[in-house]
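name: query_chain
kind: protein
chains: 1
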Amino acid sequence: MLQIENVTKTFGSIKALDGVSFKVEKGEFVFITGPSGAGKSTLINLILGKGKPTSGKIILDGKNVAEILPKDMPAHRQKIGVIFQDFKVLSERTVRENVQLGLAVLDVPQSEWIPRVNKVLKLVGLRERAGLFPAQLSGGELQRVSLARALVVNPKIILADEPTGNLDWDTADKMMELLEAINREGKTIIMATHHQKIVDKLKKRVIKLKGGQMEKVVKKDKK
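structure:
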């Protein structure tokens, strides 16, 4: 489904990524780990189509992301749901309006908005809080809004960039249970994290980055 082929990304004299290669199969849950500055977020952005590799290829669903024309980029991004550490919700909009935004950006017909938003809000446990504003929500609820917004476009793959970074352990644990449930339904998930306790608990495949390079690939099977 996703192939990262010898990807290097430089910013001036800095190599954010250096010859990174791996594959992710459909339905996998893969962690990308490493310290700050390892290249995790850079890789997530390149998969999303925010910038191009200096060299190498990123192939998603058979298409080289760097060769996608600007007019075709919305269709590419509709295949991808993104969850960020800082939630990126709009404070002046309700939960429902924040989730609808993902559909508006991708020009999904408004006739589809209500059923799709209701479905994902129920899935993440926020149906009863749809009319509230971000200031009225907890950190865990804000992250679930972010997850609902990622899911509402019915993506083929979910990119999660440090989604538990601002959450306490109990809340982070519940978020991971939700992500696991979504993964069991067939969604492919790639999660960048430095939260070793979560990585150890879930026992998924781990791709470790250090200084922009792959340190080693670890595969952990659940017992």
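note: The first strand starts at residue 2 and ends at 11.
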